[in-house]
Design brief:
Chain lengths: 244, 248
């Protein structure tokens, strides 16, 4: 099963590489450089610090969002009295494109990492919160009753029932959030920074250094795919029961 | 062992479910509760388990008021946690009591062997058959070494053969471990085979319609005897008269 997954993944990578080579030949002006040109302009010394900065921003943002959204979602899902008051606030603010608050974040939190991390965290917070709250709300009451009859208290209910029951939903929301957070990362790294893959891409674009621009694009892709794969591994380890 | 006195319960909105329900079950005795669908059998069990708050009347186990989480219960469908293995499910009650793993192992291994679950300890509930799942549920309550077990239609979703097999297994456990149990069922035959005392509830709001003494319950030979069929017919007639009764 796993071997087949790797084989199909490898096949998909080859197909994408083929499409890239074809596009680099068809589109003139060097806008799409060939994989070989990109490999030649890859500079580990320039790439690594930018990759680490971007990775740090995304990971910290996701961690902040998870730490805030998961407990809140689990609690709201189990406490309709609180949910009744908080849900309208969530649903009124959920559709607002939070990215427009970037200038306000820059003014309030400065132009450093804090504002960037805060904006990414805020955006993915909603995705994780809504999914976790819905997951927690749908936990069947007989599971809780069963634990109570075995002597489980309120914290045991969260530990042994609510959290494991919601874990597949939480990890799914995390997977979706990874895509979102990398996209926002590019946006926030386009302003007021001299570091990060977003900055590397925009700098290279400004200098018409398309191979270097592609180094940044591939770096962003590797970042997203790596985090996605980590969540996949976590899901396989922690939610075996849901994959049977 | 357990005394239920003048129990009255209504759901929010004033829907009365139980009216003046009183009965007693002796130590090591089995009690089956039967009645029309939706009459309040499960509510009665949830009140005894402490999962619902008492409104009127009282329930005493060995002379003491009931407390939540002290009486293990086997539920119809959702009793097992799908995210825990058979071992973890069976050990759950002991894990909650913070008993060391070695002691848990010592306590549950004979139970897993007795119920034929030893080869499945690493399985998840979704990998088991319905009958195996209910055996896990039985093992889980036995691991708690309880004096009283509550069961809410534990075999209702099983096929006839598996149900009969598990009823026999339960009767053996009851005799061997001398555990008091109260089983809620909608099956007349199940009530007759498992209940030394059979409580028949009326339609909602439920009152006790009849209490039938059934001394041969649990005896495998009883199932094919005339006495079994006579008791079953008496129960059937009582339930039929309840369903025909126009008064609530």
């Amino acid at each position: 099963m796993r071997r087949q997954r790797y084989l199909t993944g490898l096949l998909a990578a080859f197909i994408l590489l083929g499409i890239w080579i074809l596009l680099s030949r068809w589109i003139s002006g060097g806008i799409i450089p060939s994989p070989l040109q990109v490999a030649r302009s890859f500079d580990l010394k320039a790439f690594t610090p930018n990759f680490i900065v971007s990775l740090g921003r995304v990971v910290i943002s996701l961690a902040v969002a998870i730490l805030a959204a998961v407990p809140m979602g689990l609690f709201l899902g189990q406490n309709p009295a609180w949910d009744k008051w908080i849900a309208p606030m969530i649903f009124l603010t959920y559709p607002i494109p939070k990215i427009v608050f970037l200038p306000i974040f820059f003014i309030l939190l400065g132009i450093g990492n804090v504002s960037k991390v805060a904006l990414i965290a805020l955006i993915v917070f909603y995705q994780i919160l809504v999914t976790t709250r819905d997951g927690s709300r749908s936990v069947k009451k007989p599971f809780i009753d069963a634990l109570v009859t075995l002597g489980g208290g309120p914290l045991d209910i969260y530990r042994h029932v609510i959290v494991p029951a919601c874990l597949p939903a939480i990890l799914t929301s995390l997977r979706i959030s990874i895509g979102t957070s990398v996209a926002i990362l590019f946006f926030v790294e386009s302003f007021a920074t001299r570091s990060g893959l977003g900055n590397l891409i925009l700098d290279a674009w400004g200098m018409a250094d398309y191979p270097m621009m592609f180094v940044g694009i591939i770096g962003m892709s590797v970042l997203g795919i790596s985090l996605y794969e980590i969540v996949e591994i976590l899901e396989r380890k922690l939610c075996k029961w849901a994959q049977l | 062992m357990i005394q239920v006195k003048h129990l009255r319960f209504a759901y929010p909105g004033g829907v009365e479910v139980l009216i003046d329900v009183s009965f007693g079950v002796g130590k090591g005795e089995s009690c089956a509760v039967i009645g029309p669908s939706g009459c309040g059998k499960t509510t009665l069990l949830y009140l005894i388990a402490g999962l619902l708050p008492l409104q009127e009347g009282n329930i005493r186990v060995n002379g003491a008021a009931i407390t939540r989480g002290n009486i293990p219960m086997i539920l119809q469908d959702y009793g097992l946690f799908p995210w825990k293995t058979v071992w973890e499910n069976v050990a759950m009650g002991l894990i909650l009591k913070h008993i060391p793993r070695r002691e848990i192992e010592e306590r549950i291994t004979p139970i897993l062997d007795e119920l034929g679950l030893a080869p499945f300890v690493a399985f998840y509930p979704s990998q088991l058959s319905g009958g195996q799942r209910q055996r896990v549920a039985i093992a889980r309550v036995l691991a708690m070494n309880p004096s009283l077990i509550l069961m809410d239609e534990p075999f209702s979703s099983l096929d006839a053969m598996t149900r009969e097999h598990l009823q026999r297994l339960l009767a053996q456990i009851w005799i061997r471990h001398q555990i008091t149990f109260i089983i809620v069922t909608h099956s007349i035959e199940e009530a007759t085979f498992l209940g030394k005392k059979i409580i028949v509830l009326s339609r909602r709001p439920a009152r006790i319609q009849a209490i039938v003494d059934n001394p041969r319950a649990g005896d495998p030979a009883y199932r094919s005897s005339n006495a079994f069929f006579e008791t079953s017919s008496r129960l059937r007639d009582t339930l039929f008269s309840i369903s025909q009764d126009p008064t609530p």
